[in-house]
Design brief:
The protein is an alpha/beta fold. The termini are far apart.
Amino acid sequence: MKKNLKLRADNFKIKVGNVSYNREQIKKVVKKANDELVNILLLPELCLTGASLYDGYKNDDILSSCLDSLFDLKKFSENIDTLFSVGLPIKEGNKIIDMVFLLKEGEICGGFFKDNFKDHEKYIFDLPENDFVSIKGEYIRIYNKSFLEIDGVKISLSVGGNEDKIIPDSLNARSNNDIDIILNPSAKIRYIGSREKTEDKIKFLSQNTTYLFSSTGLGESSTDFVYEGLNIIGKNGRIIKNNRDEFSDYNGFFDVNRNISTEDFHLNNASDLGQINKYPYISTDKEKYVEDAFEIASNALIQRMEAISCKKVILGLSGGLDSTMALLFIVKAFEKMNLPKENILLYTMPAFGTSKRTKSNAYKLAEAFGIKLNEIVIKDAVNIHLKDIGHDGKSQDIAYENAQARERTQILFDKGNMENALVIGTGDKSEISQGFATYNGDHMSSYVVNASLTKTELRYTVGYLVEKTENEKLKEVLDDILKTPISPELKNESEDKISQKTEDIIGPYELIDFFTYEFLENSSIEEIYQKAKAAFKDDYDSKTIKKWLKSFYKRLTSSQFKRSVSVDGPAMSEKSFSPRRGYLLPSDMSSEIFMERIEKLDD
């Protein structure tokens, strides 16, 4: 039997937690689809609340508003021929269930619950007890273990997605029931390279059927993540339509009663274990990698600025790699928002250790973008502060160094208050893992855009821009920044040279970043050591690797107190150090177990 169906996957800009606003947006999207004779409309997971409400899903006022809105939409659908989805949390006893309901012609046709939770969702959502839910005296059947047949079309729906499984459990349970169309409302978090993985998965799952995917995007909180905002329709193993933050339409004939295949499938071939990649966290597709990084960082910053009605940012520009990358992300965001560059407030704050080279590069970088760079010399302010606290001003100890970093942070926040500007942080994943930042100094900002990128990734990204930019001034200064030794520049040195080099203090960044990646993958110390020896056999001997591995774990454990109060910023990979949704350790954890194991390693 053949049916001519018009399918649509769509989303809209939500307001997190504003159920009534989101309900009215749903009505607009549904009415438009109905007017355009769409048969089936898929909207994202949790589209009534937003997918980034965290513990807000437990709030009784929000839950009550969701139920009221569901029945408001039910009444609204009385004159709607389009079958459409609505995602919301519901409370069943003491459990919160992530549900999606299908509505049409004044009826709630059926429901589906989420059963494949992300790690942070396991503390919020649960599974229902029965194969139905009771809402305001109405019993609604749940179809997770079967399918919903409407007008002769068998529809399966899987809420969300599990990155560790190609075929969700909910689809496996229904795989032999002649499914015609699979609906997948989602709240897909975007990482570098994640879109391609999503497309590959949909190609597989649509081999013998039609697959609609819709993920939330614009309006979601950017506290820790950026969401995909992606709508995809797949059919017969191909991507038919693929749009970001725009609807995807497909109008065509469908052969109903066709099975979905459940054969084993791998997105990527297993790598040759004999070849250990020095940089397993970096894609070989430079263009796509850099494009994703800029999209995620700029979209996250845009969301945060719009959420707080802010049109200005303030950045401390040192002329080093981190602040350079932050500025590049900021410029991208401002271009998207059509905001004037005059609203990017740049400050350089030279002190005792500032070199001519980095200061010069800060000015050249600002000039390359046509942005004014303001200079505030902080030597006098720091000297007064040191005198006030009884410091002799000569001992170049930790207080001497940190006083400079904290003075800079104080200036940026105070200027931010004066200008109503968001203070942008510059810390990267390498510094965060090693605690190489001044607590409440450069460790602190209003929003940080680099936090999920390692120093190696920053070099990789800036290096790509050197190759591709047509801005000769920008090319020249970026190239010199890449060649400049990385340094905190907090020691009183000659202005003509940089002798305080970070990699002499904490180790080569390529090793730190390799250790960080493997640590977040839960590799053992023995595994990390052996892999590092294989990957860097031509660069470092085993004693050197062991030395810096020991330093890595000491710094990692002793600096957790800094990560526990990390600033909001977007994750660009699936593993981060966010204190909310990343790798968590106690701030008072001992490093002894790691030291013991490292001592037992063979050189």
